[in-house]
Predict the structure.
Amino acid sequence: MPIYEYACKNCGHEFEELVRGGETPSCPSCGQGRLEKRMSAPAAHSAGPSESACPARETCGMPRCRGQNCGMGQWT
């Protein structure tokens, strides 16, 4: 059951939704079904916190990786 990211064409609300089979979600903000499916990056998991596990390490420019508090990994 994949989780998809959506943006409502009616009110602009952005949200994630767990979609089963052929279900079509509705916007939790306005209830409309006019949605645009957004591209989302797959999550990467590691055994523990590590500077090398950061997907943005090469591009962020920080002298030391801040791990989960960085926020840069969500954009790669």
